[in-house]
Design goal:
The protein is built from eight helices and 17 strands. It has helices at about 1-15, 20-30, 190-200, 220-225, 235-240, 255-260, 315, 335-345, and strands spanning about 70, 75-80, 80-85, 100, 105-110, 120-125, 135-145, 155, 160-165, 180-185, 215, 245-250, 275-280, 285-295, 305-310, 325-330, 330-335. The longest helix is centred in the first third of the chain and has 15 residues, at about 1-15. Helix content is about 20%, strand content about 25%. By secondary structure, the chain is α+β, with helices and mostly antiparallel strands. The strands form four sheets. Strands 3, 4, 5, 6, 7, 8, 9, 10 and 11 form a nine-stranded antiparallel β-sheet that branches. The protein has a four-stranded antiparallel β-sheet with strand order 14-13-12-15, with no helix packed on it. Strands 1-2 form a two-stranded antiparallel sheet. The protein has two domains: about 1-225, Glucose Permease (Domain IIA), CATH 2.70.70; about 240-345, no CATH class.
Length: about 350
């Protein structure tokens, strides 16, 4: 069924031409207030087909391995985006699908050297007109469009490159060429300081756009909710995300993360002297809601303390990796992963 659908779409789109295929998607596929489009010419999602008609699994063949979350290595490794397979191939059976910017924005970063990252060749587009100003990431490209430059303004549907199988440190076989697509946030503008402290013994080729400094939301969940009319934009999507735990970080710092994404604030930080932050996290570790705490509000703590205020244990334990908390003698504590996220955001040692 999957292969026959792919053949049918390829025949139909070849008759019309690849560029016409975008406008077919665009005419019925511009959703929400900001003109959201699908990042590839595969019309399966817009036509309401099941994920197996557009998601590329890993060698395991398990569909969920191409989705977002704890889906790799038997659930022990997190996958930050979704993988989308091609419907066009050349005579050598290499993927040739154009990759589209999904929203208007500005090209923030281009990595054109495949071996510099496990992403291979990738492009990041920032979307300052979106609230919050998320970025989208397009990875494993065969090539980046030759006209594309950092700082360039792009529109929904601008071609960023061609789908491929580029990667650093491992090989993606021809038959599993795909687009790795993310929607996310940048944790810190001072990521290099954290990187230097880790002693990795390798160079950070990507500055603040290193994958270790990026954290995403589930792209397919977002697209599905937009298509069903449940949300109109990313702000509404985030507002509906369940909270798995709330932590208090005792510090007077206002990190650049919250300056960059000020609409994640529950209340203004300008009402007094900030002495701590109550931060609500999603199950996948995104610091989603920020509540500044001010001097005189009646709580205790030393600078640098991280306190667990409340949590939803079934939500946290419902996945096998990236757990927000651990339990020691029945007491909830921030996990090593959560502390690493906070170190990046606040610059803690």
């Amino acid at each position: 069924m999957q292969m026959e659908l792919k053949r049918q779409w390829a025949r139909k789109l070849r008759r019309l031409g690849v560029w016409a295929s975008f406008f077919i998607l665009g005419s019925g596929g511009l959703w929400g207030e900001s003109g959201l489009v699908w990042p590839t010419p595969n019309p399966a999602f817009q036509e309401g087909h099941a994920p197996e008609t557009f998601i590329q699994p890993t060698a395991s063949g398990r569909l969920e391995s191409g989705l977002f979350g704890c889906v790799r290595n038997g659930g022990r490794r997190f996958h930050e985006g979704i993988d989308l397979f091609p419907i066009f191939r050349d005579r050598r059976r290499e993927a040739t699908d154009p990759i589209y910017a999904v929203l208007p924005g500005r090209v923030a970063y281009i990595s054109s050297v495949a071996w510099h990252s496990s992403y291979g060749r990738y492009v990041i587009v920032e979307h300052p007109q979106v609230s919050p100003p998320i970025h989208t990431l397009y990875a494993h490209l065969a090539r980046v469009d030759s006209s594309l430059q950092v700082g360039q303004t792009v529109q929904s549907g601008t071609v960023l490159g061609v789908m491929g199988r580029s990667a650093g440190g491992y090989t993606i076989p021809r038959e599993r060429a795909h687009l790795h697509f993310e929607i996310g946030f940048r944790l810190s503008d001072d990521f290099q300081s954290w990187f230097d402290q880790q002693g990795f013994g390798s160079e950070n080729y990507h500055g603040v756009w290193n994958g270790m400094n990026l954290m995403g939301v589930d792209p397919l969940d977002f697209y599905e909710k937009v298509r069903r009319g449940e949300v109109q934009n990313i702000d509404e999507f985030l507002a509906a995300e369940p909270i798995a735990a709330t932590l208090r970080v005792v510090t007077s710092q206002t990190p650049d993360f919250i300056r960059r994404y000020p609409n994640l604030l529950e209340r203004s930080a300008d009402r007094g002297n900030v002495v701590a932050w109550d931060i609500a996290f999603t199950w996948y570790g995104l610091p989603l809601r920020w509540n500044p705490r001010f001097a005189g509000e009646g709580f205790q703590g030393n600078q640098g303390d991280v306190q667990v205020l409340r949590y939803h244990r079934p939500l946290i334990e419902g996945q096998a990796c990236r757990r927000l908390l651990t339990w020691r003698s029945g007491r909830a504590e921030p996990s090593a992963q959560t502390l690493t996220t906070l170190k990046k955001i606040f610059g803690f040692q």
